[in-house]
Amino acid sequence: MPASSGPDLWVAGLFAAALSAVMMTAIVGVRYLITSGLFAWITGRVRPGLYKGLGGQIRREIGWSLLSAAIYGLPAGIAAWGWQARGWTRIYTDPAAWPLWWMPLSLLVYLALHDTWFYWTHRWMHRPRPFRIAHAVHHASRPPTAWAAMSFHPVEALTGAVVIPVLVFLVPIHAAMLGLVLTIMTVMGITNHMGWEIFPRRLVHSRIGHWLITASHHHRHHENYRCNYGLYFRFWDHLCGTDRGLSAP
Ligand SMILES: [Zn+2]
Ligand SMILES: [Zn+2]
């Protein structure tokens, strides 16, 4: 039987996809440790003592977050392999492949779709049974810290992990814009939880701020539980009457 026969190729593909998932897990885990570590360090400089007495909680946040890294790594690794090895995704690298205006628009589309998915799954996870099973871990951080960015129960991590890997198969996006989506996801995930507002008051309390989610908005969700469910935008919270305004973290 020739070495390049069907089953051998299939096994080689499976092995390459698994390797990609392991590498992606390591990348997500290291990215989490570096970025959360950086913002925790900044917090120590600008709000000394804010995390005082939270050592035990922070250790649990890091443990859940590293477990989440593996859950994020699996679909992300498979999508990355599908892109690189098989050309299955709609990620493109030639800027001329789509009109230039699609670049910023694709960024907005990705953020809006992720936000919509997050809002509704998050609301669902605040029903009593799903909350106990999937979401109590995230709310065990009281108050959350910069280390809580990925502190999720595996079930909740899975609901978050599939979004971007599914979207890259459906909605065309330039690789640089995808990098920007992931950067925004990482930075906002951390800054929204770190216990103080990093964005200027003038922006947070402006007309644009009325539609954007930063720490002042998400902190209220962690105080109040029954409001402010969104991820990036306050569109769904405003529309569904679940927006209770800003907290003063
Ligand atoms: Zn949160
Ligand atoms: Zn919640």
Automatic annotation (TrEMBL):
It is found in: Membrane. Residues 108-242 form the Fatty acid hydroxylase domain. The chain crosses the membrane at residues 12-41, 62-81, 101-120. InterPro entries: Fatty_acid_hydroxylase, Sterol_Desaturase_Related. The keyword Transferase does not apply. Keywords: Membrane, Transmembrane, Transmembrane helix. Pfam families: FA_hydroxylase. It comes from the Bacteria. The keyword Transmembrane applies. This is Sterol desaturase family protein.
